[in-house]
Amino acid sequence: MNVSRIITAMVALLISVACSGSKKQSNEMRKGKALIVFFSHAGENYAVGNIKEGNTKIVADYIKEQTGADMFEIVAEKSYDMPYSELIKVAQAEKKSGELPAFKGSISNVDEYDVVFIGGPIWWGTYPQVMFSFFNKYDLNGKTLIPFTTHEGSGLGSTVGDVKKQYPKATVTGAFAIYGHEVRTGKSKVLQWLKGLGY
User: Fold this and answer.
1) pLDDT of residue 49
2) What is the mean pLDDT of the chain?
3) Where does the UniProt annotation place the signal sequence (predicted)?
4) Diameter of the chain measured on Cα atoms
5) Is 71 within 8 Å of 64 (Cβ atoms)?
6) Who contacts 85 (Cβ-Cβ below 8 Å, separation ≥6)?
7) Which of the pair, 160 or 19, is modelled with greater confidence?
């Protein structure tokens, strides 16, 4: 009787271990190879003053550190190095006219990525227009897209809907927003969010 119980317990343990390993493997496959695409604005920013490193760049660095993802920073060819009061007027004009500013660099292997984190500040309710230039150039349909933003009260704005509209065949999930003035002391919030995503 005792031998029978021992055998039954061993079989149950083996099944449990096998299932656990299978689950871990499926999670790794689900996540796949990741890329962080972001735009960040240094210089004069609302609430944090003149900064050498943009708020979104800091969050992107946290994500890279935790996930090991590759990074591509969207850098506009035009300069946004100007007083904040002037910047908001430029950003508004770009959005109103539908301008798609050119950006530097390119990604030759975008098809290799399964997951793309998409980050930027909120300028007039959504991502800066230069990010839409990136969206128009690269097809991210079929991938898992994870929007994130830095802001001072706008949250995610319309970024989630805008990404879904741009990439209707992508899975848009796990969006995250953090106040720009919190990023330098709010690493734990970013890590908690990533943990919820399985990283």
Assistant:
1) 75
2) 88
3) 1-20
4) 83
5) yes
6) none
7) 160
Identify whether the C-beta of residue 92 lies closer than 8 Å to the C-beta of residue 122. Answer: no
Would you state the pLDDT for residue 45?
81
With a CB cutoff of 8 Å and minimum separation 6, the contacts of 83 are 44
Per-residue pLDDT, 31:
65
Instruction: Give the C-alpha separation, 139 to 168, whole Å.
Output: 11
Which residue ranges form the domains of the chain, and what is each CATH number?
34-197 (3.40.50.360)
Q: Which amino acid is at 21?
A: G
Residues 143-183: tens digit of each pLDDT: 999 999 999 999 999 999 999 999 999 999 999 999 999 99
- Written as six digits, the tokens of 23 are 């689950």
What is the pLDDT at residue 190? 98
Contacts 24+ apart (CB under 8 A), 192-198: 194/62, 194/63, 194/66, 194/67, 197/146, 198/27, 198/30, 198/31
